Amino acid sequence: MDKQLFCDFFHRNLPSDMEECISLFALFGGIDEAIDTDQSVETLLERHVLAPFETHRAKLMEPLGEEGLYIRLLRAIAVGDRRHLSAYRRAKIGKERGSEAFEYLRRNGYLTLERSRETPPVRLHPKQKFKKEVERHKISHKLRFATPFLRFWFAFVEPFSETIRRGEYDPFWEHFHLHANAFTGFTFEELCGLYIREILAERFDVQLLDSGSYWDREVEIDLFCETYEGETWIGECKWTNHKVNKKELRHLEEKCLRLSLEPDKIFLFAKRGFSNELAHLRSARLYLFDAEELMALTRRP
Q1: What's the longest Cα–Cα distance across the chain?
Q2: Which burial class, exposed, middle or buried, applies to 197 when counting CB atoms under 10 A from its CB (0-12, 13-18, 19+)?
Q3: Is 32 within 8 Å of 9 (Cβ atoms)?
Q4: Handedness of CA 154, 159, 162, 167 (dihedral sign)
Q5: What is the pTM of this model?
Q6: What is the CA radius of gyration of the chain?
Q7: Same domain? 175 vs 283
Q8: Is the confidence at residue 289, as pLDDT, over 90?
Q9: Number of compact structural domains in the chain
Q10: Does residue 278 sit in the same domain as residue 151?
Q11: How far is CA 79 from CA 72, 158, 163, 170, 185, in A?
Q12: 65-99 confidence digits (pLDDT tens)
C-alpha cells in the first residue's frame, strides 16, 4: 500500500471522517479524479464507474490484449485468499503459466508480490514421514493489487461486464451490497500495516526488518512485523460495526501459542473501537487503535 496514494485521496476528496475515507478509498483509490463525498456511494459508483464503464474497461484491458488468462487470474485474486497457488487453481491455469502471467501483470502495474514467511518442516532424519496433509502442503505467496480500484474492478465490475454494458445494473448492485463490507476490510488491513510502518515504527524509534502478514497451513495473522532490535509485533484488524471485545485478543493469543510465539507488542485495529473490558487491558504490550487513528497517514511532510 502506498502512503502517497492514500494521502492524495484524502486531500483531493476531504471525506468527513476516516471511516468514510477508508470505505471510499477501497472503491476509488487509484482513480485520479475528485469525487463528491457528500453523495451516496451508489451515486458515486454510478457516476464514476458504471456510466464511464467503457472508458475504464478500455484503459484497463489494453495491456491485457485478448489474453483471457490474465483476466481470469485477476478475477481469481480479487475474490480469493490471494495465495498464488489457490489463485492459479481458481483461474484454472497451471503453476508455470500462472507464474508467467503474474510476472506480466506485475510488470504492467496490476499486481505486487508478498512472499510467505512460512518455513518447510524440518526432517529429523532423511526417512522421517509427516502427516499426509503436511506432505501435500505447498508454501504459497500472496498476490496483491497495486491499487484498491484495480481490486474493486476485478472483484465487482468485470464479472458483470456484459450486463453493465447493457445498462442492467441490478446484478452488480446485488453483489456489491452483499460483499462490500467484507471487501473493505482488506483495504483497512493494508492501511493498518501502512500505519505500523509509517507511524508506529517512528513512534517507537525502531527499524522494521520485515512487515506484512503471516500465514501458513493452519494459522493466519493480519499483521506481522520484525524489527532490527529483535522484537516481534503482531496485530489484527476488524472492520465491523460493533466494538471489538476481549474475545478477539484471546483468539490472537491462541494463534501465537500455536506458533510458539511470544510477541513483544500486540496491535488491535477496529473500525468502531473497543469494549470497556478490552480498553482497560491497554499496556506497554497491548495497543488499541480505531479507524480515526489512521488520520496520521494523511499528514503531508
Answers
A1: 66
A2: middle
A3: no
A4: negative
A5: 0.94
A6: 21
A7: no
A8: yes
A9: 2
A10: no
A11: 11, 12, 19, 20, 13
A12: 766 899 999 999 999 999 999 999 999 999 999 99
